[in-house]
Queue: 2 jobs
Job 1
Amino acid sequence: MDALAKKDDTYLDSLRSSLHEIFAHDERVLLLGEDVLDPYGGAFKVTKGLSEKFPGRVVPSPICEASLVGLGVGLSLRGMRPIIEIMFGDFITLAADQLINHAAKFSGMYAGQVEVPLVVRTPMGAGRGYGPTHSQSLEKMFFGIPNLKVVAPSLWHSPGELLKQAVRDNGPVLFVEHKMLYPLVLGCGRGIIHVESDSDETYPVSYVRNYDESDQADVVVITYGGISRFIEALLIRLFDEEIRCLFILPSHINNRNLPIEALQKVHGAGRVVVVEEGTSGFGWCAEIAKQIYELYFDKLLMPIVTVAAKDCVIPSNLSMEKDVIVTEDNISDAIYKVLGI
Amino acid sequence: MRRTIVRLPQDNPNDTKALLVEWLHKDQLLVEKGSIICLVESTKAIYEVEAEVCGYLIPLLDAGKEAAVGDVIAVLSESEKDTVELVQSWIMDSTIEIASNVQFDQSLDLSLVHKATKKAEMRAKELGVNLENMPIIEGRITEKHVLDFYKNIGKHPASPVQHASEANLIIRMDVYPEQYMQKVLIVGAGTGSVQIIDALKDSKTQVPVAMLDDTPEFLGKSVMSVPIIGGIRKELVLGLLAKGEIDAVVIAITHNHMDFRMKLFMDWKESGVPFANIIHEKAHVASNVSMGQGNIILSQAYIGPSTKMGGNNFISSNVSIDHHCQLGDCCAFGPGVVTSGCVTIGSNVMFGTGIFVEPRVAIGSNSVVASGCIITKSVPDFSHVKHHSNITVHTRG
């Protein structure tokens, strides 16, 4: 799989064109969601052109997230490959029962006699001043649910390829997009920035660094999804400060084991920062840190530094929102902290 | 002249253009960073555009007009004399390259860029290097600068002395702050000075800063980057001490000038000049050893426990003065002089090379011991000890 993107595609382009390819190749694929029909093509335009091209396979619905996902579960039990679009990630709470108690359980409860190859796509994330109930990163609620995969494409993956993989998956996948990433051109290696992908993994891990392969990183930053929008500017700034930094971006983010290659890179540097966009406490950072401490406690030079949003409701006001969510400066501060400066 | 470009921001993923509703300030007005400069209408809402920096506002898009997301709509200029025409021709001429995902031009405020890179700061902290002590360079201090400085710390002039008034006192390390390096002046720019500079190469407490030599051609030159700044004059030395440019002196002149060495040392010492002990880190000075000032002890030398020595002794490499010995002032030892325990040596004694001394022997002051001697009995002052052997030299045939 070509896990890295075509040049100049935006995150949105990659998703949209991939949807068209998926629909063309597999008749079992349907898409259900709110406002998904052309000409509107979805709140974030991901489904633009789809209903025109594939009439009858793009199904609009009223505001009923639980029903949408419930329908999706039913369709997948019956052999279809449905993709459910939830307009804002904040609304996933309404579909939580369908996802957790139905989609993630049936295969196990019926001893593998049935499968639920369901994909639920939704954009999470803050930064536009959309307010407390339209800006959250609620994927952390779905970590640790057995049989439910959470996949989050970053700017340094091919979101379209990851979506194809999610559709191919025979189990339920919560596919977490990020609203700030949609208009951005996908990251690629140029100048001082080098990008690699761990193509052995079904859901690949991307590695983005600002130094040559022959050197050793001073610090490793592990993160996923929307936080990747800060990487290019950060790597350039750090390069000017002579700091060699490696970003590790898993795509299957609730994988119980970080891939070995990722861990080996951690091992070399000895200093780690973990960043998530969700609120701090009891989240992704804690789990990743735990995995690293279990394996590499004696190789660490400093305790792992974590960065997450403040433990409070996200304000609507743009400048107040900036104080609460994770910013580029929060990440660079954490990097300097773990470097001891 | 610094100008910051204001571009039309993207309000939401659905809109690729928007309408400029109105400018909230008159042209060329000085606006504060963070103040609202204009209102823009998208399909969903009217939103405010903030000034990213403080500057004189020069709008470039008329109110009521539409523009595409990312278009330049204004410039914030640092000069009140700037005009629309000047700005427009500047935009035409500029080859400003903006990263694809950046929506506001961030002109770099150089006063915010720190002098040393973060990596240099990190390295300096690890090595205990004080960045303020480093020589002033153009551009930023990098990690390489710090590493080079650390390696060659003797080659750089040290920082101003904090204890200038105490420079004439006997050297006491408890008076100096932890990272202070004693600035040493070397008298004599011959081979002895090279040995002293080498002995101090990795020292964390002493650094050779200058040399004196009477050879006129040497003035202004340097030995291993230590400059020769003048002739051997006491007044010069006292002046340097008073100004705090040096802390202590060591005499590098050796064997061939025993009398000169001794006279210089005695005279200057009487005038209050402090002398430094130069001990190579690979020399072994054992327990309970006491010594005066101005001694030079080179690599692989050994001074055994409870030995007492005076000052201004030149002890070459591989010299071994064993336990419970007594050594006076101003002696000079060639390499490979080995004494046993409880040997007493006076002052102003010169030793050649390859000499052995049995225990409890006393060697009187002002003596000379030739190379190869094995001394088994005491000798009085003013002795010349030679040995006669059957070493002959023929040409190889």
Job 2
Amino acid sequence: MSKHRAAVVFVHGLSRKPSPLDLKKLWLWGLDQDNPMPTVFEQPNPGIRLGTNGVASQFCYYADVFYGNSYETDFQSYYEAETSKSEIKADALLDLEDGFIALEGGTPREQGFLRTFEARLGANLSLTDAADAAAIASHIQKTGSPTGYEIAGLLPPAVRRAIIKKAAMEAYYFLFDKEFTRADGVRFAVRRELRTRLLASLRRAAEEAEKVIIVAHSMGTMVAYDVLRNCPECSFVDTMITVGSPLGIREVQQELLANDARSIDFPAQKLGRWINVYDPVDPICGADPRFANDFQPVDGKAVVDVKESNWGSWRHTITHYFSGTRFRNELAATAGISRSAA
Amino acid sequence: MKPDSVVAALLTGTCPDAPVWEINKAVRTIVDGIALDRATYVAAGIWKATNTLNRALHFELSRLIGQEWAGSRDFHAGIARNYAQSLINLSFLDEADDVLDHAMREVGKGGNGVRAEPELTEYQGLKARLCKQRFVNDGDINYLVQAFDRYCLGYAASKETSYWLAINAIALLARAERDGVACPSGRSSAQRAARLLRKMPAALGDDVWLMATMSELCLALGKMNDAELWLYRLMHLPGCDAFVLNSFARQLKEIWGGRALDGGNSGADRLASIVAKHQMSRFAVLAFDPPKTRHAQDELELNFSGAGSFSIDALTQILQACSAIGCVCNKAGCRLGTGFLVEASTLGLEHRGKVFVTNAHVLSNEVEGALRPAEGLVSFEMACIEGKPVFHKIEKILFTSPPGSLGQACSPCENLDVTVVQLEQGPSDCAGLSLSAYLPIVDGDAKAYVIGHPRGSGLQVSVHDSELLAVDEASRLLHYRTPTDPGSSGSPVFNEQWKVIALHHGGSSCMPRFRPASGVYQANEGVTMQAIREGIRAEFAACAASRPMPLPADHPATMARR
């Protein structure tokens, strides 16, 4: 059987997720919808139906490493919700599960990472009173350059603290390849496990398609970059599209630095193109959501940053990113899918 | 299914599960056998075959057999009845009249066996139906009155036991009353209906026609709850097949004026709507009147139940697609298949403008049973003028490839079951359907939708149970569950973005699976548009290669010519 012309490998992000099947359906639904949020995104904005257009898709699922089969079952916020609480709840960020123990001991480097990472995110989600969300968002849209104060104003303090803690713990376990013991007693060497899973997904995609595309979200972008830059056995990927990525945080970059590199750089041996889509008010992206000036170009290849604001007070939700016209244009062009409505 | 098996199935009264071109071949065998092999092709078998073909709505095939029998063998009352029925359904009304007159004379003579006498009632009923059909076709009130009289005479001749004759008379009388037409009767339709109700048997058993009669009777009496109850009972009887439902739906529409989808509140509207919804769920098609629906887009809230919902954009695309889908008819206007318009360039043809694509087993000079293009016409339902179809002649065949067996693995460019023709003049302002550049991935969620004219009906959109099941290794054939019927042949098969991916050509409950899988399953089959494009390309490349190369200028023969 001849190969499909392209395959997309999706890599999810932070925190507890719906079951693998439900998550895939939700992500594909997010891409499918015609003309979502017409008040935010320019019309026409037809959906992208990968399977209908002969593009295969795979999901690299790893939430079970941390959370087992305790799947998220409230999907409401993946849709056009507005309340931050429902959106963040569905990203399961409010609770800190067992297993994410407070770090005792650890190397100075590890302790330093946690402090600094939390501080970075905390600076983005800082501490002043909430201002009018709409006014803030409007200001950001006009100026294009949010400050921590402005991002902070959109989220309640308890929510901010929970987000920081969970993001820090997941990043820590991955970047330092710590062993994580799940609630049911199963143990994983986190970085090795996540690398293995993504490498397998990429291998399968390369076997079934002429071109492989990665679409990675949030913490999943760390996994994707790590595999592309630091795993020689990784198959070639035509394009990686990162959304809501914390790769702009220096401490994260330091832990992903390749052995043969002086500074963090474009993984040119295994990657053709890298498009980074960010919402400037997405707190997980941090104060530096743009990467073109961080990741050293190699062989003429450099990160292309694409700013696209979505909506609501929690801008990190994947289906919000997937609704964006600019994101969709990039994915369609990469996958060779026509974007005409008729 | 082997050819002999198809013949045997027909002769024993079983509807064969075979593609229509194999049924065509079997009918040709039977037709030839009627004259040449009297020992095998006896009256009982022929009667069962024509009965089966009529029930399956293969009226043209039934007609061929009936015609051959009438021309070469002794009169048989049952065969003659089936022959007349096929002619009426094909709108050969004058011919049907002649057949019935002859049949009634023969039965009147006596000596045709014990079956012959009861057929007289059927003949009288068919005569009445002829008149009814003339009234429906022409709107001539005289035919309404004639039909009414004949139904009444037939009912009386049956000693008031053939209730279906009575209900038809009542329906026509009610129609006359609604239209304000004088129809000599002596009693009103309501009075007649009340009388018939008293005569109906207490227990109807599993008789589908009695159930249908009861429902229609209650409609005539304005007892709508009872009418609906009897209709639901009818629809759940095992014997209630598409033939029965189509007959009832036609009566509701043509005589009672029922409209299934216009949201009307009359009793007939309600019953028509119930039948349409049942057809949608059971036979999984939604029939709507595209020209009317086009004008009602702003109020459209169609939920193709079980198939999820469609956005207004999608519904707009569907309606636009309908304008390019046509019906292949014979010169009598009988619908025999479906086809669609595309830009010639999308198929790799050098012809300018749009071309019409259908199956070779529908339209061909070579395939057995297919309509010859010289005899064919194409109409487009969305381009009707005041409800009347506009027929377009076929100018020439641009490409054709005969059908193979279902699920057949062969060269990607052979047995494509396609005919591409140029029409003398197609509908104006029609964009033609868009072809998809790619085939969908079969992942359990992919869909395949079909729009066509199943069983000679109006345009129907088939979206229920529309799973795409498989694509063969050569990307030449698709299998899908999307329900279709005879007459759907030649329909476009769409992906979820309403772009054409294949040409529908048949189905089977025992469809061979594509390799490397083995076994059979229930599936419909389409030929991919990319295979058709490739077939056209290969044929034209072969033609170019076989053309003699022009001799060089300095060749002695060339110089000698100078």
